[in-house]
Amino acid sequence: MEYFIQQLINGLTLGSIYGLIAIGYTMVYGIIGMINFAHGDIFTVGAYVALAVILLLGISGATGATMLVLALLLVLVISMVFTAVWGWTVERIAYRPLRGSFRLAPLITAIGMSIVLQNFIQVTQGARVKPIQPIISGGIPLFDGRSDGGIIVQLSWMQLLIIVSTFVLMVGFTFLITKTALGRSQRACEQDQKMAALLGVDVDKTISLTFVMGAALAAVAGLMFLLLYGVLDFYIGFLAGIKAFTAAVLGGIGSLPGAMLGGIVLGLIEVFWSAYFSVEYKDVAAFSILAIVLIFMPSGLLGKPEVEKV
Amino acid sequence: MNVTTTSRYPWENDPLLTVENLTMRFGGLVAVDNLSFTVGRGDITALIGPNGAGKTTVFNCVTGFYKPTEGRIVMRHGPGRRDEAVEELTDSAARYARQEDGAVFLLERMPDFTISSTAKVARTFQNIRLFGGMTCLENLLVAQHNPLMRASGFSIAGLLNLPSYRSAAKEAKDRAIYWLEQCQLIHRADDPAADLPYGDQRRLEIARAMCSEPHLLCLDEPAAGLNPRESAELNALLQFIRSETGTSILLIEHDMGVVMKISDHVVVLDYGRKIADETADAVRNDPKVIAAYLGVDDESEIDDEDIRADLHRGEHQAGTQGGEA
């Protein structure tokens, strides 16, 4: 039982990171119907910028609690700004000129941009793995099962930070999309870009802002990944990106809560499979379950089924 | 440019929109051929003609959907013709120019979203284009996107729910509710627009267009598919809009009951050309219009000798031009 709860916490943490990246995929798909494969690499950029700023500020495990919170917030803001600029630029130079051409063109460019970003990071940052010292350690022991031959279930500060900030971001984001003028115009562009333009909505700007928002969330995920695992290489974005994309599809691509749910489900599957079966087959299990879900629910867990009117 | 100075018609003296020498070609097809007409300020102007006459193409040029092949489309805010300002603007590279008491816009130079937000031209479509997945209220709020965006400071103030944003949001909501009430849709405010019956969707489109506070409202066949009671309600709504807000209306319509009852001014197109430009009464009795509308086959139904003579001329013309209709 203790083991189960511990794995649940671990799965939620991993799932939160997947979910945050998945939102970037799902929002872009929702508004322009393309898969932005470069999004995973934007996540890598976010993690690297965070690493650079952490080293520059000299943040370490010895930093005091208040200072640490402020410093990490600063790190977060800086890496969000960087990834936002990257996201905006990629859209502006690589995707916008191709809007309105045939569907495969932006897809191919997206794969191209992904490779460009990956190689850029490899060349400028080196191909070697970059480690940092753990910054946040310790946690809350939830209960001690040692007397019954079990283990201590612990919610580490790091995990708490990840789960809580993901939750806060999700609430903020849902509010942004459902209640504000920007969110409304995003949904309007999703349904009918031409009509939105005729009502005075600047469609290009709305799409740019969508990329910026997705990229900023990827920076949050990047920082969390760095703090959780403590190592980076230029390739992390590839696998994380594929997983997050899977999460977005699993949840129903185009749906915001779906992306988050898909991320958490994927994280839980991975962690539980590793814990109870074999760790080597965790990706096989995750992707098999994806295939099975899509066979029975083609539009994902929360996606709207596509009804064809005749 | 052919700026006529005749004052026979009131709309020539105080024009809101002038379409001047508009030509639109698609490859070899000339959809609109050297068309000029005027929409008077505060008027209800109808654009009529047989199917394929180029009416919707004119709308698409006015609202920035198409870039016209040739011609000038001038929108004016504030009273008067503003001929000097228009010429000055045409010679410059600018898209619009503001004066103390108004502004002039060259619509053919403006990107589509600014035609609504800056030049204040709104339109509806022949086939309904509501945001089906959003509620009626949200549909109307999207039309007020720009003032809301400005007030929300790119969503920052919106997220923090600052007082400045709250008052702008309330104002937008009040306007939306006002138009929902005028269109008798207030009881459906929170329902998805796609769930409304057809006639209600048509009125919702008009309500949405009005929420952008247009100076000119362009309606593409607003009465299409409405039953007689609904088209009577539409007449009342359009007259209410004109008298209450002063918004000028340009409409494409096939329902002559609607056109003749509410229009001040009727422009008739056939094969992309203007064949009549008159008051509603004058157009009703114009033989060329009758010929274009009824087609030459229906000649036997017309018992006036003069009209028959005209019809034969019209038949000859139609035969040489070919096409649909």
Automatic annotation (TrEMBL), chain A:
InterPro entries hit by this protein = ABC_transp_permease (IPR001851), BCAA_transport_permease (IPR052157)
One Pfam family for this entry, by name?
Answer: BPD_transp_2
* GO CC field: plasma membrane
**In terms of one coarse class, where is the protein primarily found?**
membrane
GO MF assignments: L-isoleucine transmembrane transporter activity; L-leucine transmembrane transporter activity; L-phenylalanine transmembrane transporter activity; L-valine transmembrane transporter activity
CDD domains (UniProt xref): TM_PBP1_LivH_like
Which BP terms from GO are recorded?
Answer: D-alanine transmembrane transport; L-alanine transport; L-isoleucine import across plasma membrane
Enumerate the subcellular locations listed in this protein's record, separating them with semicolons: Cell membrane
Q: Where are the transmembrane segments?
A: 12-35, 42-62, 68-90, 102-121, 157-177, 207-228, 260-279, 285-303
Q: How does it sit in the membrane?
A: Multi-pass membrane protein
What family is reported? Answer: Belongs to the binding-protein-dependent transport system permease family. LivHM subfamily.
Question: In its UniProt entry, what is this protein called?
Answer: Branched-chain amino acid ABC transporter permease LivH
Which organism was this protein described from?
Notoacmeibacter marinus
UniProtKB/TrEMBL annotation, chain B:
Q: Care to name a GO molecular-function term for this sequence?
A: L-isoleucine transmembrane transporter activity
Q: Which family does it belong to?
A: Belongs to the ABC transporter superfamily.
The ABC transporter domain extends over: 17-296
Matching entries from PANTHER family are given as:
CONSERVED COMPONENT OF ABC TRANSPORTER FOR NATURAL AMINO ACIDS-RELATED, HIGH-AFFINITY BRANCHED-CHAIN AMINO ACID TRANSPORT ATP-BINDING PROTEIN LIVG
Q: Which InterPro entries match?
A: AAA+_ATPase, ABC_AA/LPS_Transport, ABC_transporter-like_ATP-bd, BCA_ABC_TP_C, P-loop_NTPase
Entry GO CC: plasma membrane
Kindly list the organism's lineage. Bacteria, Pseudomonadati, Pseudomonadota, Alphaproteobacteria, Hyphomicrobiales
Q: Which Gene3D superfamilies match?
A: P-loop containing nucleotide triphosphate hydrolases
- Output this protein's name: ABC transporter ATP-binding protein
Which terms are listed as keywords in the entry?
Amino-acid transport, ATP-binding, Nucleotide-binding, Transport
Q: Where is this region: Disordered?
A: 304-325
